[in-house]
């Protein structure tokens, strides 16, 4: 293959002369696979969400272990009905200076992630059952979310939840581990936005480790695409033959910009250089168009 490389289009990597592979059965396969998987999904997903929301109401001593059991029982089958096969999360050896050598995250730890689709949220819950949170406008504060809120958050216009903002210490004491969706909104999976959450060393308890979490999908990007609604994202996944998903973590006690770069490397996409101001303008524009439609 190497000898063809030089004639490929440098910007896209596409070779103009090799004919595209044609799959005569692909277009037929999609609706068939979706129809076969949909019933399993409908049987599993609503009861799972209901039980999970109920467990969030219990005192934390009970809530976390029970949620962990529920996640382990249900999520592998829900993911299978979405054609997603998760592999065991791996801890990458840190390449950045000052990074600590990681072990698997425990209840006192924080995962910094971006979010592109509901599948990301299900995968992270399967691996660690974290409490999800989004950055707040108050620095070093976050808004906790239940699992169903976190799933919806990946599909709606960027918005700040109504739950009161909490400091990381408050949230960790009761609901750790935490997964912060640090971009504060979801993207189309083409890159990682600048993180709106910048960890402040005083706000993080001493025994907590910050992890950057990146998920990559094979076929590339199959688990994340531009989505308008949760159903379109899930139906799209159901039609795939098979999606394998891999979570990779690195422990990094660095500033926000390095976390963004780290998640981007782990997920195998570029870090986007869009600054926070244009991000905010985009969010406002998105909100305006959404309110026009409704
Ligand atoms: C982060 O973004 C990348 C691409 O933009 C995506 O592949 C990945 O699934 C996203 N989510 C997480 C938690 O890494």
UniProtKB/TrEMBL annotation:
Keywords: Acyltransferase, Lipid metabolism, Membrane, Transferase, Transmembrane, Transmembrane helix
Keyword Transferase: yes
GO MF: acyltransferase activity
GO biological process, one term: lipid metabolic process
Chain segments annotated as transmembrane: 38-62
The protein's name in its UniProt record: Putative lysophosphatidic acid:oleoyl-CoA acyltransferase
Organism: Gracilariopsis chorda
Organism ancestry: Eukaryota, Rhodophyta, Florideophyceae, Rhodymeniophycidae, Gracilariales
């Amino acid at each position: 293959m190497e000898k063809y490389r030089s004639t490929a289009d440098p910007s896209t990597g596409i070779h103009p002369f090799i004919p595209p592979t044609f799959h005569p059965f692909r277009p037929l396969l999609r609706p068939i696979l979706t129809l076969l998987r949909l019933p399993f999904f409908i049987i599993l997903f609503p009861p799972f969400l209901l039980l999970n929301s109920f467990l969030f109401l219990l005192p934390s001593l009970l809530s976390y272990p029970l949620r962990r059991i529920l996640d382990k029982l249900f999520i592998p089958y829900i993911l299978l009905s979405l054609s997603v096969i998760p592999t065991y999360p791996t801890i990458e050896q840190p390449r950045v200076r000052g990074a600590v050598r990681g072990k698997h995250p425990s209840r006192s730890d924080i995962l910094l992630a971006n979010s592109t689709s509901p599948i990301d949220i299900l995968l992270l819950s399967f691996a660690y059952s974290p409490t999800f949170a989004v950055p707040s406008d108050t620095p070093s504060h976050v808004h906790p979310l239940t699992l169903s809120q976190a799933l919806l958050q990946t599909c709606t216009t960027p918005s700040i939840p109504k739950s009161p903002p909490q400091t990381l210490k408050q949230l960790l004491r009761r609901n750790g581990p935490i997964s912060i969706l640090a971009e504060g909104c979801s993207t189309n999976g083409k890159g990682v936005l600048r993180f709106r959450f910048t960890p402040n060393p005083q706000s993080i308890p001493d025994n907590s480790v910050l992890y950057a979490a990146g998920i990559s999908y094979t076929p590339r990007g199959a688990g994340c695409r531009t989505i308008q609604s949760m159903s379109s994202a899930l139906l799209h996944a159901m039609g795939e033959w098979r999606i394998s998903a891999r979570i990779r973590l690195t422990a990094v006690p660095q500033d926000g910009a390095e976390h963004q770069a780290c998640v981007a490397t782990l997920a195998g996409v570029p870090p986007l250089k869009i600054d926070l101001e244009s991000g905010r303008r985009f969010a406002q524009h998105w909100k305006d168009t959404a309110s026009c439609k409704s």
